[in-house]
Predict the 3D structure of the following.
Amino acid sequence: MISVLEPIMEVESSRSYIDELYSSDQRKCLDAIVRLKNSVIGSDRQKGSVIEQGVVPRLLQILGDNISSYPMKVEATITLGSLAKGTEEHIEALLDMRIVPLLISTLKSEDPRLLEVCLCCLRTVFQSSSAPVDLIYEDPNLVTHLLNLLSHSVSNQVCITTILTAACKTCENQNFLCEHGVVPALAALLCSPHYKVQMPSLSCLANMCFQNSKVSTVVSTTSYGGKSVPDLLVTLMARDKPSEMQMGSARCLTYMHRAGAIGSEDTKILYKTLPCLVRLCKKDRPPSERVLAAETLAYLTEVDTELQRLASISNHLVPTLAEFLRHPGARGLNGTSSIVVPPPPAAPLDPTSDPLAANNYSLLSSPTLISGSPAGLAAFASLGANDEDIRKKIIETDNLMEHIVAGLQDSSPKVRLAAVRCLHSLSRSVQQLRTTFQDHSVWRPLMQLLQGAGEDVLSVASSTLCNLLLEFSPSKEPILESGAVDLLCQLTKRKDPALRLNGIWALMNMAFQAEQKIKSQILNTLGTEQIFRLLSDSEVNVLMKTLGLLRNLLSTKPHIDHIMGLHGNQIMQAVILILEGNHGAEVKEQALCILANIADGDCAKEFIMSNEDVLKKLTNYMLHSNVKLQIAAIFCISNLAWKEEGGALERQARLRDMGVHKLLQQLIATSDTMLFDKVKTALTQFSES
């Protein structure tokens, strides 16, 4: 019964002063506001009760009218700020009543105390993810006005830097703040004697620099008190500073480095930022700090091989990160940055490329509670992106693969993403593909993850699948049996170019030295119409991998003849489309290599020999200024003229009539050794006349 009567009694007991809120007597009204303020402090239940009674509109009226005294406005604003410190539902109610536009308009007041409490209230409201922070930019003079208010009090400095941090979400926001003088103001605040001023200033600076080369360059060249901002940050990173301050400074320098404003060889990165982040990962630090340090370290090192190498040998980092996996229950805040940038596609391993290519994905996201496990996996993903020795260190971590497999099936999207990124880095190791990956059947949870995954997970998971489909991977066969062809063909139709690339790349890997039935399945599922669409793709990498797929499909004589017998006209049309298109030499080289493969077939040769236009194109490319194109064209001619195959004399005669033999005799004088070898081989195929 008490739970039912209690709120009624509270309403009745407060009725008298709530009624006085509407009194025309300003003294009575002020007294009522103060009593109301005192009643809601520290009690979410009281805050909810007051909001339900419809008191907020009266407080907003007092703040916004021209009749109420400044003391009344001050107390009303403090009360609103207290209500905003309640639950998310309480803040939503205030936002629905348009508290933010009113607070922003109140910033024009000339009363210092009202300005101060108004900023405090606005800071509290802006902590909500639902707050309309973009309203800060509606009046182009507002940011300048806020900067002018910084000198009024320490409270103003704390509030304004926090407000600007919350309002810095996009590249446009970053540039606007930079252009309106925020960077010099923050540089000055970094030198404040007050910790509570320095910390939000670091957060604001970090948000402004994140993935913004223009702003980061301005920050790196800004000075205060004779010291550049990077030097000021190094000072704040000293071991005698609070660890939160060290972390904030390291984040700023990390973002400036990744934005290209500070090189990886700079001592501030090599000998200050990197060691600081490694140190903050240690288990003597608070869990939230360790998580943020590991994620920031992952971001710092993810694209630089030397930083990865140094980090891996610094202060027992690999065993330290292994602790994150053994104690996944440690939970903490993932930073204060509210900028969310979609990760660029990770580059899958290509049979014809360097298997140690970098991952190239971003690890940072909006504030959220996470466990230590994904932070450790994220750091391992970056450290192992390029170096096989580092991967060996990582893979020796106790039960690492069990943690990854479990992470792939975790209910948390963040954990799944970290696990698949770590798996992607490790999948760059030929040895791991042949051993550890097979032992743990990682393809099973990976294929499950690909079903209905979000685009961020899907991008990395499909990149990993590309590596698991290489011909030396034992996982290739079971992946094929689990429906990978359909899944990958669907990826090639996605709007995201990264997903199209991964889909066609994986199909290319799948087709490499594959059985004829697999090649036919790929070609039939993908369809020639989709191949033509991919050959017209705006992304050159998608075009290149599509040509690579055709090369892999058209390999070994029986397969070439079979596929050309079914789809020869369409394939020839596709090759001509590329050769006649406005493409670079590397694209046209792939098209010529496809022709060379077709020329290697027994029956397929006729698709070239019967096409005078294609033969003329080959003779033209024999004299091209690009040596690679010459070599590819001559390789095709050599296959057509191959003297040990049936009908060789007739084909040679036709090529002689077109002047091919004379061109080869001219080219034998080349100084290029590779071209010389191809010309010599081609000439030896022609019978003496």
